[in-house]
Amino acid sequence: MRARYSLYWFTLPALAVIGLFFIHPIVLTFDMSLTSFKGIGEAKEVGWRNYERIFSRERYLREIWLTLWYTVIVVSALTVTGLFFAAMLHRLPLIRNFSRAALYTPAMMSFVVVGYVWQFLYSPLNGGINVALRDLGLGAFEQNWLGDPALALYSVAFTQIWMFTGFTCAIFLAGFAGIPEEIGEAGRLEGATSWQRFRYLELPLLGPSITVSVMLTTIGTLKTFELPFILTKGGPDGATRLLSIDIIDNLFGQYKFGFASALSIVMLVIVLGVAFLQNKVLRDRENAS
Q1: Which end of the chain is more exposed for a tag (fewer CB within 10 A), N or C?
Q2: Is the bond leading into 180 cis (omega within 30 degrees of zero)?
Q3: Closest CA to 226 of 112, 138, 64
Q4: Residue 38 and residue 35: Cα distance in Å, rounded?
Q5: Inter-CA distances, 150 with 84, 156, 237, Å
């Protein structure tokens, strides 16, 4: 009994760190969200007025929708592309190490560097993408990739997908490495094609890897800020103005600390809610398979 209770003492340092650096700041942020504090002077209590403003104005509801839609695009694409490259490299061991390093390199680059490089590539005049289309005789497909409200969000999303495909690929390759070779051999002996082995043998066993990949990419994408800010600064016409951009703008641009705190709490609730729902659905799927 004493040994069992002594184990709880070892959790106290971790609980103290979580309480001090996670729970305590959230409590302070929520407390500030109920004020109209502007960084100086006395914080005036306004109750739930900041939250009423968020959920009563179409602008902020649109930003929440854009953030969720952007996350769906990025997470879905990252899951599919990462799984595709991982499946290919799993079957090509001779080039696996080199290709894995090449795919993962963008994920190790700075958001600022990636943002400015792709800003040049997306340039409507002499950007790399339009020049390449022109040289290939596909000039009819040239676009103002970041200046067209109908394309801007998808252009920013593509940049993030390009940047983190190697990250999800590495997660899935780790999942493939954990699948016993006997399962693949049994499938080959039964005459199963490569697609059939992937669909009916490997994919169900990749459930834990899919859960980890989707959870990490979802949380990271929901709170993404750097790429949309560098590439478009929320434009054009608010087409890429995600919730994170509005939080930074209210905090450091307009010094509306109280309102920015309310937006932050809303984002936190969205992240926790989506993560909890995803975890439940994916875990149930793992158990069912």
Answers
A1: N
A2: no
A3: 112
A4: 9
A5: 28, 12, 10
pLDDT band with cut points at 50, 70 and 90 for residue 122: very high
* CA neighbours closer than 13 Å in the CB half-sphere of residue 264: 21
Q: At what angle do helices 257-288 and 58-90 cross, to 10 degrees?
A: 40
Least confident interval from 36-50, 204-218, 221-235: 36-50
pLDDT tens digits along 55-106:
999 999 999 999 999 999 999 999 999 999 999 998 888 887 788 888 888 9
pLDDT of residue 198: 87
- For helices 96-104 and 58-90, angle between their N-to-C axes, nearest 10 degrees: 160
Say whether 191 sits in a helix, a strand or coil: coil
Q: CA 90, 95, 97: angle at the middle one, nearest 5?
A: 80
pTM of the model: 0.91
Residue 131 has pLDDT above 70, yes or no: yes
User: Are 52 and 202 spatial neighbours (Cβ–Cβ below 8 Å)?
Assistant: no
Coil, strand or helix at 45: strand
Q: What mean pLDDT is predicted for residues 114-125?
A: 93
User: Look-up: residue for tokens 């490299």?
Assistant: 89
Based on its alpha-carbon atoms, the radius of gyration of the chain, rounded to whole angstroms, reads 23
Q: Which residues of 71-88 are buried (b: 16+ CB within 10 A; e: fewer)?
A: bebbbebbbebbbebbbe
- How far apart CA 245 and CA 46 sit, in angstroms, is 24
Which residues contact residue 156 at a Cβ distance below 8 angstroms, ignoring those fewer than 6 apart? 70, 146, 227, 228, 231, 232, 240
Q: Collapsing DSSP states into helix, strand and coil, what is residue 35?
A: strand
With a cut of 60, say whether residue 1 has pLDDT above it: no
| Contact between residue 74 and residue 68 where contact means Cβ atoms under 8 Å apart | no
CA distance 288 to 112: 42
Dist CA 86 CA 92 (whole Å):
10
